[in-house]
Known about the structure:
It contains 10 helices and 21 strands. It is an alpha+beta fold.
Amino acid sequence: MFRQKTILLWMILIITLVFTGATIGQWGLAKVTGEEHYESLKTFTEVLSLIKKNYVEEANDKDLIYGAIKGMLNSLDPHSTFMTPEAFKEMQVETKGEFGGIGIQIGIKDDMLTVIAPIDDTPAHKAGVKAGDKIIKINGESTKDMNLQDAVSKLRGLKGTSVTITIMRKGWDEPKDIPIVRDIIKIQSVKSKVLEEGIGYIKITNFQEQTSQDLENTLKNLEKEKIASLVLDLRNNPGGLLESSVDVSSQFLPLAKLVVYIKGRGDERKEYHTRNNGQHYDYPMVVLVNEGSASASEIVAGALKDWSRAVIVGTKTFGKASVQTVIPLSDGSGLRLTTARYYTPKGISIQTTGIVPDIIVKPKTQKGVKHPIIREKDLERHLENDTIKDKKPETDKEDETIETGEDVSEEEDVQLQRAIDILKTWNIFKGLQKAG
């Protein structure tokens, strides 16, 4: 009896800390107090006590606590999650650019686990998994009511091990099992080549700790190739570290330019400016984006657009303008908690609305097959755009798009070809100005 009371007291203490402690990181420590919170805790402890005394099997204390915390986080926005110690370690590894898994971005849409996009050159991509696919089972276990972090944990694993996902795709009569052998997912965040007529091409796949340094090295190498203009490809880039997006933007904007600012619940504003010792690349530039461009990639595209530094080409972006703070907990677990919203230099929130390109170019059709596009506004419990909350939302005409071949050639990539045409024209007009 004494042991049970002791456990109960510890559980109350832990849950009280969750309610009254809070956001750590750039926001410091924000404490919330009030009798209404403790009244709510009374109900919680009543339920907890009933479970411990009366549940048909003995309940594990840690499972109960973790389950309660997951429930709290699941009641918030889709990007706030609880990570077990194992998942927290995996997250830390992922930001460094390497982890074991199948290589997909997932979210919750219509209460179903949904593929946002497969990552290029990964097992999932090679197995034919596509954006919009509904994952209804993982290794035979139903994903109904499964949260994102649990799904990620089940999809991750050691290289060479296998996982079977059961997916349902629009147009199919029945779901299909897709066995996939896990591999080390090495996210090479920066790839480059030289296109025709001295046009450099850089693709950033996500924003990791080393992305800015890799970009700097890549640009130096392209300089040796005498490039005169640049295509920056951020398509299907799901984002990553905010600091990395600022450092990437710093390589294309003058010193001390505002890249992004964020505001938390207390309306405190924190600004992020370029930091480049006064040196930056000023090539004529086109940025490619699409519905898979999210978060940190939207920060970069938004900053370059607001400062008229580049022409944005492609389709409307994902529309995620929230900031998650990672908070380590004492037992090795962690929280990924949404602590702020971000805004472009002109004070624009792209939450749920995305960035609309300067020039809209839809991808080339293939076989006339349509598949759904997943954006922030489609995710359960998404935050609303606080700058347009009094306006009636416009109907999104891009809920469906024509599917493209995921491995289209450079010549078939109409968005890239439009970018090349723009830069060719840019160079022609630049030459005419010199002649004048």
